[in-house]
Fold each of these.
Amino acid sequence: MRLVYLVVTSLMLLPVSPRIATIGPYSLSFASDYSRDAKGLEGEYQPFLDALNKGQTPPFDKEFSSLTIPDPALWFGEYFETEQVQALVDDYKAEVAKEKLISTFMTKFWPSGTHFKVHCKPHRPSSAKFPPRPDAYEPKKEISIERFEVEFKSDKPSLSHEHSYSMSFSVNVVWVDGAYRYLGGGAYPFWAMPETLEQRRSK
């Protein structure tokens, strides 16, 4: 009996290595080995590219899990008014789903069998050429948003341009539970980005 007790106790003291547990469409992050810099963000995009390079098809829920806020309602509730939270959560889910569709663009404009690698760098501060949407929700306290340039480099030229071996875009991210979490692309986080003409027409 004493031996069993010692074995069980020893197992309980062993370090736990799993980084992410998935619950529903989002994931809960318990620990992370990502660094809070461009290299760390590259590490978060790498599972997606690994899957794409192997020919995996959507959905890429697991591959994008580290880039997704673990508990959106809790996080938005910390920074925005209660009555705004549900709308922000709904918009956030749509924004994440849209980001995952990047694979459709890549497979459409690059030939089958193309392999990609990722390179990230901090976005150089600059003023946006257009203002945020006038009806954007205002956080009740400051959010430490960081912006990066993300480049996917290919080993084959694009189908649309024989001299194009990469695609790049900017992302807004926030550091939550040991990883960068996606808050939309472009000049502003998703809740402050002006609507496109198509979005206005759909209303």
Amino acid sequence: MIKNNLTIILLFSFTTLFAQETILIPKFLKNPMDSITKQNFNQSLESLFSEMKKGKIDESLLTPKKAELTQSQLQELVNYEIKKDSSELKNKDKQLINIYPVSNNEYFISVSYTYQKPESESILLYIINLIATKDENKFTFSVPIDYLTRYWKTQTIGNTTYHFRNNLNTERAKLFDKKNSEIAKKLGLIPEKMDFYMTDNFQEISELLSFKYSLFSNGKYRDGYGVDSKTIFAIMNNEDFSHDMFHYYSGKINKRENRNWITEEGIAYLWGNAYYTDKNGEMITHKRLVTELQNYLSKNPNTNLYELFSKNEKIFNNIAPEISVRSTISGIITQEIETKKGVEGTTKLINAGREKRLESYLKVTDELIGINRENFNTKVKELIEEY
């Protein structure tokens, strides 16, 4: 009986938590701070997660240098909190699991999120890493990107400052800078200055941006990330991010509800690239895809181009499985519109409408260059042959 009571006492001592309403801080967690600093830290941490639970983030709790990027990333956690039902709100699902100093006034912290299914084991949702910075009698918080890349090199090419470990492909970087300027100017904008991090895969990007683990993106690796707060993260360590630069600049002048994503992707392929890298780590140009499409049609002369376009069938698996034939064809149509109607024509096509996007897209192509569902096969085949 004494042994059982001792076991209960020991178990209780390792699971008893500080009186926090939102985030659990176990007593067994080794925090190297003095008692006053620890109290200030606990209060600041509680405030941060309490605010997120209410559906907002108090900017005074964010470290100024990376505040915009931090707010953008923590928005995923805010969205998660907003979606909770009443039963989930009762669960203590956040816990501080690690903390250690990385400078005199900075600490690296880790927080876990779990989901407890009724009558089932808990599921790990997130492990979030942040840098907590002591600021007088409180702490502010930031994504850990500066700390995790503190030994990386930097080099500025045109409007872009690259952050990288070992080597930078300057030819690719110069090409990106050129396309960045061209895309902005076509849309009547001034090219912006960006920070570009050379990342190997999406998991590395996530870690730089606080998400050590996410249930919702585990295993995802071929994507890049950006543009977020004038920051870009490379797609599979490639220096050219021009595909998403078009979307970024387009979003500055075109309303979300008007933007047609058949057009958007077509122009991003045409003016930028196909976003994903090939098996050799090279970006895939629109010109290369048109050549592949021409070869495909020569081998499959009875192809119904409208069906290929509307269903967005996969025919470029030999290059990259994600590549879109619809976007390739949309780029060809955009090129014809740009040649005949100028940027005004492409702008009209971009703003064809978000709803019923295929019908909306074809309505505008019919107005601009006479391409509609009925003559799609004939007219688009001519454009492909003449490209």
Amino acid sequence: MKRELGTFERALMIADNHAPFHSVSVIKLECAPSPQIVRNALKVMQDHHPFLSVRLLEEQGHYHFATLVEPGLPFHVLPRWNDGHWVDVVEVEMGNRINTSTSPLFRCTYLYDATHERAEIILTLHPTIADSASTTRLMHELLKVCASLRDEKTVPVSGQVPHTNAVETRFPPAFRGLQLSLHTLRYALTQLADEISYRMQTRDRRIPPLHPKPTRGHIHFIQLPEDLVDELSRRARLEKLTLNSVLNAAMLLAVNQELYAGQPVPMRTFSFANLRPYVKPPLSDQELASYASILRYTVAVEGGIDFWQLARDLHAKIYSSLKSGNKFVANLITEPLIKLVTSLKSFRVGATALNYNGAIPIQPSYSALKVTGVHAFVSAYDLGPELSAQALLFNDQLFWDFVYLDADMTRDEAIAITEEIRTILAHAIGR
């Protein structure tokens, strides 16, 4: 395979060239398989998905995915010290660049405790080859193969899926040609007006700070139990809101209260859109690709604001934007925006970002193999939000994973923000 990168893929590559930028996913296991079984299963996945055998090739200023003749299998086994060992490994993984020119665009570390049969699979993926939807599907397939190899000594998948073209080649007809240009112009003017308004309103007020010295990314995570998630979901439905808007609003309010002293200020957050159901033809989660869009929203936040009103304000902006098709335009203009941000290095893009994945396909058990937790992180970024997060539903619980820079906050401050999020959501449903 040799396929030129699309515009969104180039944007992700430019971001990674500025600073390491990739996803790191964690599967926590009990009754864990041996390292050899995981290695063999990972090799099956590599043979099945062509993007797990490619590198990035530059030719005359153009970048391509190019299949490696001998891709090798970037799989490493480490002895598992304790239940928190994986946190240290993830923080190192977030800051370690993938060698995109000579190696496959992924790597896997297996923390294994043979005595207690506990383990963590830590999967690092370059963002050009996989989005959240295909990453969780890939992990589900990997676990299925692990269980099959251990129990039946057989492989439940065979053959190779076709490689996927760039997302813009499958935009619906209303977002191609002249119509796309008109949509793009309208969106650009809207963003320009938002930028002018934001700069005027934040004059002499706190905004996400730039840090001249190198900083290190750290992680923190919380879990919300099933009963709390059910109550939040019911209230969100009554308010005609999505859980994504509710969670995002809680992040904004907590950051405002802890980092901005509750002062009234416009704050910027990012929400992510999965384009797979909307392209023509739709793309299944079984195919590795980066079919997502990143959209920025500005809302007024202050310490004493009514939480549900904030969630409604944010949801209205998200709903209107998605309904008008901005998810397609935002995907296309990400490249020039990333070029601008990384070349100027004069501002941070926002205060928060949340990628809400919803219910994921990973199961609590695969035969004797037990999954006790699933986590997802994206590398901390010096020009990115002060607090970014991935949230997913697994085994009826919400796993909420946060990333922050040590220059933005201490661990105690990060914990204070996440505990404030818990408090905000509990109060929102009358607890």
Amino acid sequence: MINLKNMNEEEIKIFTKDNKVITLKELFERKEEARKQLASLPFEEKIKILISLQELACSWGEKQDVIIWRL
């Protein structure tokens, strides 16, 4: 078992889905950058994204109680 408490962010390596290796620090930096980009989107675009997530939950997640907004 790996003890993560004694490791710093530069020592922890993560394999991405395209087989690249990044550090935990890079992961959090990329997450913060993505959050800033999403925050800067226009409100209408955020609503479109929400609707696509509702559709995904309904079809892929087989959730029958999901309400999909209509524009």
